[in-house]
């Protein structure tokens, strides 16, 4: 390894510092000139132990605490103190010139003057402390925000309009708002009854009468009677065409179509429905799903349809379809004297243990009532086949 024309033995943990080498796990190179230990540093040209001292503006101070930091040429404890404008103050306090430290909860320093805070909404405005719930500040001056407002560093009445930092004379001038190419500016009226400005570039803008004229997106003044309706930047006829999210659909309005926001698609309300920007057939976005599963609270054993027909059909068993799964399940849970009925039972393949048989095709839930009666609650899909369950076996 070559360090400033000096050859050294190559080692993967050593680097160059001038014409010497050092181990990065034990030392480091100070300003590419001197090799120091990892716990050493320099203060005013002298080496010191960073574990015992702290250097504040080339002044060594004993490190009495691990949380000691510099504040100007002195040190402070970050757990108990703060450094404000290179001055050490207590936690929660600030520094005010000519007064010293103060409690931020009770006082505030306004341009070097200590003022008592009367509430949470009181803040500085120049040299005074004002209530921002009732007032506002305009270039260091207080004003009532209910009757006045600030315009270019001056307080004006609420009825006056501010334009480009000046009070607008509505009799002789109009205000041209800020655009991509022009700043906000006052423009002299071309005619006394003009009340609006249409910004143009590069001449700044032109005044116009907003009763009979309008400013287009191309910053042109045209008559309202001659103006075409715009969909984005494209002209269209609202009585015939349809504008959906700045996209024109020709003859869609005449054919009875509607927009499907927030997308740019259209749909026919007679045959479809708009579901959050997606067109779907039908009249509803969501369909109720009847999911019936064999509940764990049923204490009786599972049976097949063949066993049900042989044992319970003769007991005047009745059928009922689940119309509200959650409601019906709560009623069944209170009885707990139920069993699940399946289409058939089958044996698992490659199974040699005792519990090898499984049930397939849940038909419904059977509830045995008093006096020998039984009721079978069927799935929604079994509604039309309830009376012919046992005949098909």
TrEMBL record:
Top-level taxon of origin: Eukaryota
Domain spans labelled Galaxin-like repeats: 1-92, 135-276
TM stretches of this protein: none
InterPro entries xrefs: Galaxin-like, Galaxin_dom
Name the record gives this protein: Galaxin-like
Organism the protein comes from: Crassostrea virginica (Eastern oyster)
Organism lineage: Eukaryota, Metazoa, Spiralia, Lophotrochozoa, Mollusca
């Amino acid at each position: 390894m070559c360090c400033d024309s000096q050859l050294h033995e190559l080692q993967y943990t050593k680097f160059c510092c001038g014409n010497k080498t050092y181990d990065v796990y034990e030392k480091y190179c100070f300003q590419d000139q001197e090799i120091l230990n990892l716990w050493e540093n320099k203060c005013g040209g002298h080496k010191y132990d960073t574990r015992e001292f702290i250097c504040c503006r080339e002044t060594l101070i004993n490190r009495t605490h691990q949380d000691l930091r510099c504040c100007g040429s002195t040190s402070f404890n970050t757990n108990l103190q703060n450094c404000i404008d290179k001055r050490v103050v207590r936690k929660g306090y600030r520094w005010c010139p000519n007064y010293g430290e103060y409690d931020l909860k009770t006082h505030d320093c306004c341009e070097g003057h200590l003022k008592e805070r009367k509430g949470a909404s009181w803040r500085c405005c120049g040299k005074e402390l004002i209530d921002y719930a009732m007032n506002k500040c305009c270039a260091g001056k207080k004003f009532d925000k209910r009757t006045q407002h600030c315009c270019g560093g001056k307080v004006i009445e609420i009825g006056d309009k501010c334009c480009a930092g000046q009070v607008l004379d509505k009799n002789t001038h109009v205000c041209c708002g800020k655009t991509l190419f022009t700043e906000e500016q006052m423009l002299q009226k071309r005619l006394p009854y003009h009340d609006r400005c249409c910004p143009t570039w590069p001449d700044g803008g032109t005044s116009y009468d907003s009763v009979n004229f309008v400013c287009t997106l191309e910053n042109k003044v045209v008559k309202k009677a001659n103006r075409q309706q715009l969909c984005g930047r494209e002209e269209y006829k609202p009585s015939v065409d349809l504008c959906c999210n700045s996209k024109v659909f020709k003859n869609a309005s005449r054919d009875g179509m509607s927009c499907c926001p927030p997308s740019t698609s259209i749909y026919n309300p007679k045959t479809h429905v708009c579901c959050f920007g997606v067109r779907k057939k039908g009249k509803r976005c969501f369909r109720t799903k009847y999911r019936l599963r064999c509940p764990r609270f049923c204490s009786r054993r599972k049976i097949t349809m063949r066993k049900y027909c042989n044992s319970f059909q003769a007991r005047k068993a009745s059928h009922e379809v689940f119309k509200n799964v959650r409601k019906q399940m709560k009623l069944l849970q209170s009885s707990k004297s139920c069993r699940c009925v399946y289409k058939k039972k089958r044996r698992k393949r490659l199974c040699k243990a005792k519990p090898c048989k499984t049930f397939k095709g849940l038909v419904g839930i059977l509830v045995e009532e008093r006096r020998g009666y039984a009721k079978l609650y069927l799935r929604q899909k079994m509604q039309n086949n309830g009376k012919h369950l046992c005949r098909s076996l």
